[in-house]
Amino acid sequence: MPVPVHPSPPEEPLSQETRDRRAALFDAQRRTSAALMRVNHAGEIAAQALYHGQAMVARTAATRDLLLKAASEETDHLAWCETRLKELDSRPSLLNPLWYAGSFAIGAVAALLGDRASLGFVVETERQVEGHLDEHLVRLPPEDLRSKAILETMRNDEIAHGLTAKNAGGAELPAPVRMLMRGTAQVMTSTAYWI
After folding, report:
1. Is residue 8 part of a domain?
2. Lowest mean pLDDT among 8-17, 63-72, 132-141, 172-181
3. CA nearest 171: which of 127, 125, 119?
4. Is 26 exposed, middle or buried (CB count within 10 Å of its CB: 0-12, 13-18, 19+)?
5. 17 assigned to some structural domain
6. Handedness of CA 86, 74, 173, 135 (dihedral sign)
7. Residue 135 forms part of a structural domain
8. Which domain holds residue 83?
9. Model pLDDT for residues 25-50, shown as the tens digit of each residue
């Protein structure tokens, strides 16, 4: 299990009413939360792989350092998701090795197109991740304040990663590439939800 650099985001102090609602998190709601957190964990595995693949082929030290720093920051997200899965009595995706290998290859290919394209890939990836996290925040059972706190913190971090890559010169990717990325992400998220 990865060791987070930063502790998991704290929940806001809980009133008795909130504690009672939380205790009422029924099994179906727990399964929904677990499935969503499994998707987010798989996404963090993929993010690590993308950044590592891109860093391996980066043309400049500055781009490589930016990518490795982002990968390091994603370690917290990975650890938080893994811990939350355990708290929900669940497990990570069984296909995580596939997500890592495929994402590493995609990251390396993106980086072969040059640092501006590679950074643009980060910008678009983080934009799409932000959308997934927004969707998951809506789909989480209202009583699951713990998962909500984690996803909100992850969302803020992902936005910052995208802005950093854009400010470092990330190029806007062509629409067909963005659509392909979205389609690939949908395959991963819909599969990781169950497996």
Report:
1. no
2. 8-17
3. 119
4. exposed
5. no
6. positive
7. yes
8. 25-192
9. 577 788 899 999 999 999 989 988 98
Which pLDDT value is given to residue 21? Answer: 65
Closest by Cα among 127, 130, 123, 168 to 151:
130
State how many domains the chain has: 1
Distance, C-alpha 145 to centroid of its chain: 18
> What CATH number has the domain bearing residue 139?
1.20.1260.10
Both tokens of 186, joined, read 């949908």
Tell me if 144 is assigned to some domain.
yes
45-99 confidence digits (pLDDT tens): 998 898 999 999 999 999 999 899 888 888 889 999 999 999 999 999 999 999 9
